[in-house]
Amino acid sequence: MRITGKLRPVVALTAAAALVAGCSGSGDSSDRDGDRKTFIFGASDDPKTLDAAYVSDGESFRAIFQIYETLVALEPGGTEVVPSLATDWTISDDGLAYTFNLKPNVKFHDGEAFNAAAVCFNFDRWYNFKGAQQNGDISYYWQTIFGGFATKDNESVPETSRYKSCEATSDTTVTLNLAQPSSALLAGLVLPAFSIASPKAITDGGTDVTVQGDSISYSGGFGSTTVAGTGPFKFVSWERGERLVLEANEEYHEGRPKLDEIIFRPIADATARLQALQAGEIDAYEGVAAADVAAVESAAQVVSRPAFNVGYVGFNNNIPLLKNQKIRQAIAHALNRQGLLDAQYPQGAEVANQFLPPSQWGYNSSIAGYEYSEEKAKQLIAESGETNLTLEFWYPANVSRPYMPNPQAVYESFAADLEKVGFTIVPKTVPWTPDYLQNIQSDNLGQLFLLGWSGDYADPDNFVGTFFRENNPQFALNEPNIQGKLNQALAETDQAARQALYEEVNQLLFDYIPGVPFVHNQPLLALASDVTGYTPSPVSLEYFKLIDLGS
């Protein structure tokens, strides 16, 4: 999922006390109720809200993904787009009209009918977001996939929108009309941000969002007390900081799930999540540290998520020293990436040579990568003519990311590598949110910095397009040739031509070196020994409807 922006989503205005009927205890093993098949997931945080259009973080999406559905989805454990609420679809030759045939006889959890009109209600709602709803931290994925809105109320919003209209031509046929083609559209529609919710629930519950300073407040009942999708699990209750409870949808259109109940328990500390698993208080958690693998395996299962991410050392290409290509090349050769992975990463992590994982089409398999060589780095520094080799190196504190389980260890390893070849490294570290991301992404303070990306959907634009298609402050890269080819690739409707463009872009990026990709990691999950059917997803969207217990 997307790296979180600078705003803090800290307040839900709906009173939590109204949500706890039927819940008791402090979230320990008493959550289990007799013979009911209750699956308890130890999350690192609460969802921000269950209004899918307002969030972009993994913990919100994990819960939302069980409640709502989208028109198209990803195959379990893979990145192929498959039918979901739409049975099939056609795309016009000019790429401007996407027509979906919808599943008949599907009901929302509140009893309302799912149909083409409901689809258009949701898309038109998102397109007509106003004011704070247009903040990039709130409607990030709409802006990523569709661009702007019906009106422009925020300076940072894209000038134009790819969305034009939605037509419900029958109860089971709907057409999305675009103002300009986007070949990443279908892949992007798998995102939970485009979940189809009951129009009645949205209208009756009410939904609004406000931004005050660096905080986001969600108001209205929709997304907190009034929640209705078409998915395999229905909302029951939510006691913030304690538990979110879902139950099986007995009328689910694909058949009742095997589980009776899901409970999401927020446990911020990774060690506490491990202890909760060992005590039988939870059945699963994500983010198993490499050092904890043996402890987990003694009583439970460890499974790995397919590597669909990239960690990188980014360069601020506005810094005079980093404008020198010889210096950028020297850094690439100085970093002992394999040594870092051998010492700090779990089995399965691999050295990255591009800003795109190898499993994503558009990857350029002819790029061999920069070899680790102190001598080559020293030679390039000598050729550069630079004598002041001092650089600030930023890394985040108090955070673990899928591509970077221990940022300080990564920093220490790479800083030592760079000092071996003559650089003077000045450490800079601040908490991940909001300070680190704001400093790196908005305020352009980083010189060298650690960052990365976990893929949201299977399209290369979600990686290299996100980083380099527009002027991204973190890299401060102004290369019209690269940006032009990325925009050309997004508008191109011929798949073979798109692939060739992305392969070319990856070669251009490799030659320029706006930063050094260093890892594609396989994040680890822990599962209780009796959990079956848990299929790790490359994009962190697991179908809990496939899970069973005790069999």
From TrEMBL:
Residues 80-472 form the Solute-binding protein family domain. The keyword Transport applies. It comes from the Bacteria. GO terms for biological process: peptide transport. Pfam families: SBP_bac_5. Coiled coil: none annotated. Keywords: Signal, Transport. CDD domains: PBP2_DppA_like. GO terms for cellular component: ATP-binding cassette (ABC) transporter complex; periplasmic space. GO terms for molecular function: peptide transmembrane transporter activity. InterPro entries: Peptide/Ni-bd, SBP_5, SBP_5_dom. Belongs to the bacterial solute-binding protein 5 family. This is ABC transporter substrate-binding protein. It comes from Polymorphospora rubra.
